[in-house]
Design brief:
This protein is an alpha+beta fold. The protein has two helices and six strands; from the N terminus they run ααββββββ. The N and C termini lie far apart (72 Å).
Length: 161
Amino acid sequence: MSSDDRGFSLIELLIVVAIILIIAAIAIPNFMRSRIAANQASAIESLRVIGTAEVTYSVTYGGTYSSTLAQLGPPPSGTLATSANAGLIDETLAGGTKSGYVFTYSPGPVDTLGNVDSYSLNANPSTFTVTGSVYYFTDQSHVIRGNFSATAGSTDSAVAN
């Protein structure tokens, strides 16, 4: 070999590839945990947003909660907000999915005046342990409850107010 040969030897390239693989093996699990934590924080915030939207809906539309999440969503383009499309949450959340969580809204019974006096709302990971590892629940009390193994309910421990 002459002294002016340029380039890397096969050994040098293999060492660099090995170092990159070691770094990736350390970084990817940490990235996945960070993504799950971000999805869970987003789910809690989305439950808070829906709770606030329900209070606003109740005050605006005569003391009743909405019958569906879609009622809290935006009105069609160029139209004003109504009780059918109140414009209180974004269209993604009104569709029932956001940041790896599926939101299931259940209105309470309708009273004699036609009002919905209560509701319950679950936020479940779309793929458990991949998009989230906690199931969430809230209702008109606005206490957010969590469960680490099954769909959360009103008797689970509070995780946020």
